[in-house]
Specification:
The chain is α+β, with helices and mostly antiparallel strands. The chain folds into two domains: 346 residues, YVTN repeat-like/Quinoprotein amine dehydrogenase (Methylamine Dehydrogenase, Chain H), CATH 2.130.10.10; 159 residues, Alpha Horseshoe (Serine Threonine Protein Phosphatase 5, Tetratricopeptide repeat), CATH 1.25.40.980. 27% of the residues lie in helices and 26% in strands. It has a four-stranded antiparallel β-sheet with strand order 1-28-27-26, with no helix packed on it. A four-stranded antiparallel β-sheet has the order 2-3-4-5. A four-stranded antiparallel β-sheet has the order 6-7-8-9. The longest helix has 22 residues. Pfam families: WD40.
């Protein structure tokens, strides 16, 4: 069933599996012209939002390109950075290979071109990323040229070995999905070469003995390292051959169903029993390579489809680019075309409904939709569930003591419907309503706590990014407050998903013993890994720890300091915290390090400064002098009484103390 479409004469590339939301990149094709005969080139990125029922896709980024594209590929190189969405590689004419930053295109920033090279001598028609090392890219062009690029150093490529003879074009390159140093290349003559990059030489060559095999596509088996498929675009031999390199004298099997040459193949990475193919007979077929059976077929189109690709993130979806200037997105799960047909009819009706035909002030009557347009058109799904939907099942047999009795199927269905209506919990209807209306907060507040995993999966898949953290915290709070001890412990996973470190520590301390040093270290390890992960994903520093987390960090830092690891203990104490425990320990550790602190600025003094003052001590003699009788005695004194108070601060390594000297008097 068709889900989305865009009108572009372009090559395509899906965003990597770890990117969300799903994007589709398109680049102006170098192999054809559109109706305007424009020679301009454009690189565009569209968001594929399946929540939107319309067929249109929203353009999220566009960039004028200097060259048209023969091949486009999107890899996850650099996705460890919080501001990265991977890189897009475009193979153009005249040997041009360009690397673009997907994040800069989406954000409309300047300088989206990361690198560009012209090492190839002809058009670059073949590209593939290594599935094990995202920085390795293979490219193929004319004259048997194959280069291996390290995206960390895009200027100097490597070669897998000497060029194969005779020199010919490279139509496809593909990395093995199980062994990271195995690369294969295919030629239009029907020959496929398998390279071992450790030896820098080809280890086997595969070719059909009929000499009618013109190779247009190639793909490795997702799970079996020694199997691959080759497709032939020759109308005399429109087949897909499955080869096993352990028995490379002849194909293992052939898939025969197309009536004209095959233009493209794509093997589903989530289910090896699904293989897509498109051919010149305007058909798109989905095969089970193990049995040779066609398990899905799209309705025949009016033009050839030159490229089909499975979506890496959603394995039930694939894209198809056709020569009539359209890129369509389909689902192999089947569906109903009635809604799309009615939507198209409504567009036509709304376009002509309010026109005045002859200026008489009267509008046209409503457009009458033909009856055949409103008829339900069903597209059957796959003949059996794909691998990612299938669940492991078991069966047990028993003999009932009751005698079986016949019942009509219609009567059974009727009784079953009445039973479900009477016994079904009404909460089920409200749950369905919340899912349809995307009221995720209602699901969090009303769901059965025993199904908290399903609720968390719904939030992870469908909720908006700005609401996800709050919703996960709400679910974790429900598990803590309303659940038993086991559910309260499961709330930790909700706080990990939301990135709320403080709530995670509170929940962990409540449900686990942390008094022993090993238990405390286990908790601190989890906290530090989660904090660093959140900093990398969000690109901002974590907020200052609360009282519970501050207490645990202080205990761990004190444990390190007691073992002599003063610098390590200092590193665990956050600078931004205003908690008194952390400030006191930072002050002690700073002064305890002595000269080892280097240029590190001193932490703020953790105590408030209070002026306590000094009271003058009056001696009995002074009291006597204040009387008239003692005045004469005071006049005989050469100097008045002097009172002084000294306070001396002594500092020794790890502790400080104050020593006050007694008040003394100087009498003369």
């Amino acid at each position: 069933m068709k889900l989305k479409e865009i009108e572009r004469t372009a090559v395509e590339a899906w965003s990597p599996a770890n990117n969300h939301p799903i994007y589709l990149a398109t680049g102006t094709s170098a192999q054809q012209l559109d109706a305007s005969f424009s020679t301009n080139a454009t690189l565009e990125i569209f968001e594929v939002d399946f929540r939107d029922p319309s067929l249109d896709m929203k353009q999220k980024g566009t960039l004028p390109a200097s060259n048209r594209f023969h091949k486009l590929i999107w890899g996850n190189f650099g996705n460890g950075s919080p501001e990265s969405s991977g890189v897009i590689i475009g193979g153009g004419e005249n040997g041009v290979l360009t690397m673009y930053s997907a994040h800069r295109i989406l954000a409309s920033k300047s300088d989206p071109v990361i690198g560009q090279t012209e090492k190839h001598s002809g058009p670059v028609r073949a590209l593939d990323f290594n599935p094990f090392q995202s920085n390795l890219l293979a490219s193929g062009a004319n004259d048997s040229e194959i280069f291996i690029w390290d995206l960390n150093n895009f200027s100097v490529p490597m070669t897998p070995g000497t060029k194969s003879q005779p020199h010919e074009d490279i139509s496809v390159v593909s990395w093995n999905r199980q062994v990271q140093h195995i690369l294969s290349s295919a030629h239009p003559s029907g020959k496929a070469v398998v390279w071992d990059l450790r030896k820098n030489e080809p280890i086997i060559k595969v070719s059909d003995h009929s000499n009618r095999m013109h190779c247009s596509g190639m793909a490795w088996h997702p799970e079996v390292a020694t199997q691959l498929v080759l497709s032939s675009e020759d109308d005399r031999l429109p087949v897909i051959q499955i080869w096993d390199l352990r028995f490379a004298t002849s194909p293992l099997s052939q898939l025969e169903g197309h009536t004209r040459g095959v233009l493209s193949v794509s093997w589903c990475q989530a289910d090896p029993e699904l293989l897509l193919s498109s051919a010149k007979d305007n058909r798109i077929l989905c095969w089970n390579p193990s049995t040779g059976e066609v398990v899905y077929e799209l309705p025949i189109r009016s033009q050839w489809c030159f490229d089909v690709q499975w979506c890496p993130r959603n394995p039930s979806v694939f894209s198809a680019a056709t020569f009539d200037g359209w890129i369509n997105i389909y689902s192999v799960m089947g569906g109903n075309l009635e809604a799309q047909q009615r939507t198209q009819a409504d567009k036509i009706s709304s376009s002509f409904n309010n026109l005045d035909p002859f200026g008489t002030g009267q509008t046209l009557p409503p457009l009458q939709v033909p009856e055949q347009v409103a008829q339900t058109t069903l597209i059957p799904p796959l003949k059996k569930p794909p691998k990612w939907i299938r669940r492991p099942v078991g069966v047990s047999f028993a003999v009932s003591k009751w005698m079986c009795f016949p019942i009509w199927v219609s009567s059974f269905a009727q009784y079953l419907g009445v039973f479900l209506t009477r016994n079904c919990d009404m909460h089920f209807y409200s749950l369905v309503s919340s899912i349809v209306q995307q009221k995720w907060q209602d699901i969090v507040c009303t769901c059965d706590l025993q199904s908290w995993k399903e609720a968390l999966a719904i939030l992870l898949t469908y909720s908006k990014h700005e609401d996800y953290t709050q919703l996960c915290d709400m679910l974790g709070s429900r598990l803590e407050l309303e659940g038993d001890a086991a559910l309260s412990n499961d709330a930790c996973l909700c706080y990990i998903s939301s990135g709320n470190v403080e709530r995670l520590v509170e929940c962990w301390v409540k449900n686990h013993e942390t008094s022993s040093p090993l238990a405390l270290q286990d908790l601190i390890e989890k906290v530090m890994v989660l904090s660093r992960s959140i900093e990398m994903l969000r690109g901002t520093a974590e907020p200052a720890p609360g009282p519970v987390l501050a207490e645990q960090i202080t205990q761990y830092a004190s444990l390190l300091a007691s073992q002599g690891c003063l610098a390590a203990a200092m590193n665990y104490l956050p600078n931004s915290s205003k908690e008194l425990l952390i400030e006191q320990l930072r002050d002690r550790l700073y002064h305890a390090q002595g000269e080892n602190v280097g240029d590190q600025p001193p932490p703020p003094f953790p105590f408030a400064r209070v002026n306590v003052g000094v009271m003058k001590h009056t001696s009995p003699a002074a009291q006597r002098d204040s009387t008239p009788e003692g005045a004469a005695h005071r006049t005989n004194r050469r100097h008045p009484e002097k009172v002084s108070l000294k306070l001396k601060c002594l500092w020794e390594k790890e502790e400080d103390y104050w020593v006050g000297e007694n008040v003394w008097r100087i009498m003369r």
